[in-house]
Predict the 3D structure of the following.
Amino acid sequence: MRRLVATSLALCLAATLAACGKSSSGSQDQGAQTTEAAAPAPTPDELKKIQAALPAPYNTADLANGEAKFALCSACHSIAPGGPNMTGPHLHGVVGRKAGSLPDYNYSDAVKAAGFTWDAAHLETWLSGPGAMLPGTKMTFIGLKDPKDRADVIAYLMVNSAKTPQ
C-alpha cells in the first residue's frame, strides 16, 4: 500500500509541476505520444481505494472539485495512461517523476534544471504559482489561489493517474 501511495503521489506531482506552453523556438510538442502503455480505467471502487490510501489531506479531498478545477489544466495537459503530450507534458505518473524528465517533451530550461522529483509539496507550490516557483518556466498558468482547490486538484491527479491496484 505504501508503494501505491508513493506511485500515486509521484505521478500527480510530476505532471502538475511540468512546464507548459511553447518551446523557446516557438514550436509546440502537441500530439507527441508517450511510451507508457494504456491501461484500463480504474473502477469507482478502485478509485476510492486509491484515495483512501493517500496521506491527509488528499485522502479526504473533494475529487469532484478537483476534477472541475483540473478542467483548467486539461486544455494543455492529458492525464490518461498513454496520453499524449499537448501544449504541456502529459501528467499521468507525474508524482515520483523527476521534473523535466519526459524524453519526448521539450521543457523550458527552468524545469529541466529544477532537479527535484514531483511530490505533494512541490505540486502545492507549483499550483500556487508556477512562475514564482520556477522563473523562466513556459507555463503561463497564474495558479490556484485557494489552498483547498490545490489540495483537491492534487488528490484528483494522484487518484486518476495512479496505477490500479493488482
Residues 1-36 have pLDDT under 50 and may be disordered. The first helix runs from residue 2 to 17. The domain at 2-33+42-160 is CATH 1.10.760.10 (Cytochrome Bc1 Complex; Chain D, domain 2). The chain has one domain: 2-33+42-160.
